[in-house]
């Protein structure tokens, strides 16, 4: 093929009277670089500006004209070459397209060869060949095959063997991991699936520790539940025992009442049908009530007494109402104080 050969003669541009041109520019610049515009000379100032612009335009126009002349040769050459090589460019693109199609076809053949080899090797280990769909593309380069382009090199086959073997070992290790988790869950009576999913973000050791922690937590919850049930049974047994110890009573609202009595007010002991409970009966009722009572409120009460007699009266009144010291109330801060009148006490309160 004949290559393009070009003879280029560099263009020559000669500026006539170069030194005189440069000298004239310097003189003009020197003359007008400190020029001052005034109101009295504004008409002349505008004329000076017009003359300077005219000089600058003449120089610029000459520069543009010479540049076009110099560029025309290059533009003509570029247009000529572009026109001549256009058919050649078309041939190159066609051949390049054919080469690419051929290489893609060869690559597809090599990929089929690799996939077939992997499928056979994977079947030996009972593995799904689709596990290697992303990795088989790493072995389809021309350098991985013999000169015929379709036969795998021994080194390539060994790499593929190692890849499949490694995957088999990984699968076996995963099965052992799953077995360890399932075994631990079976021992504790727990479902294994939630913990198997944890393997995406945790190691086997971490998952097993999580299983143990969850088991301990659930066991603690179960112990609390059983303790509550046991306490409830014991409470019921106490009620049954109390009923057995007082067969003359029946249970209404958690209190024991004479079988022959009518309904009564458990707070006052008043028999609603008439009459009054005996002192022993009231104490029995109160004892059962206290055994079942659950306290849900409390308050702090500050009481002022005139003397010890009044204090004892207050204490006895509490006992009559079912409040016993150190059983359902306590006293803190009991002390003697300076005597106060009723008015002083009311002001203090």
Automatic annotation (TrEMBL):
Q: Which InterPro entries match?
A: Prophage_Lj928_Orf309
Coiled-coil regions listed in the entry:
217-246
Source superkingdom: Bacteria
Keywords from the UniProt entry: Coiled coil
The name of this protein is Putative phage associated protein
Q: Which organism is it from?
A: Streptococcus mitis
